[in-house]
Amino acid sequence: QVQLIESGGGLVQAGGSLRLSCVASGRTFSTYARGWFRQAPGKEREFVATINWSSSSTYYAESVKGRFTISRDNAKNTVYLQMNSLKSEDTAVYYCAASAATRRAASLEAEYHYWGQGTQVTVSS
């Protein structure tokens, strides 16, 4: 019954910004880590960003550090990804994830138990 639903994807020009949202239902994840991953065509899914349960710690992939910001609103069971200065190489399907065990920021897929359906982000040049 748990569902994670992403929104906010779309087409944007290089240098532009998008804000992704992911709301969870069926469970409360306020005490566990949340994360974002992405998968480009023909490539494996890769880690993008993570945030711990209290928002006191975050961790980013080097490719997005300084451009992307992850945040969460536990009262709304929602995690966000603010993406600035977008590049063509950011084009991918973006997936949000929620852990049911890990409270600290987590960058490994195995640390997550629930996944969203993905939202497409396309950056044109």
Q: Quick one: how many beta strands?
A: 11
**Largest sheet composition:** 7 strands, mixed
Percentage of residues assigned to helices: under 10%
Number of discrete helical segments:
0
Provide structural commentary:
The protein is an all-beta fold. Helices cover 0% and strands 47% of the residues. The relative contact order is 0.32. The mean pLDDT is 97.
Element layout with pairings:
Layout: E1 3-7, E2 10-13, E3 18-25, E4 34-39, E5 46-51, E6 58-60, E7 68-73, E8 78-83, E9 92-98, E10 114-115, E11 119-124
Parallel strand pairs: 2-11
Antiparallel strand pairs: 1-3, 3-8, 4-5, 4-9, 5-6, 7-8, 9-10, 9-11
Which properties best describe this structure?
125 residues, mainly beta, seven-stranded mixed β-sheet, four-stranded antiparallel β-sheet, 11 strands, globular
Could you write a compact summary of the structure shown?
The protein is mostly beta strands and 125 residues long. It contains no helices and eleven strands.
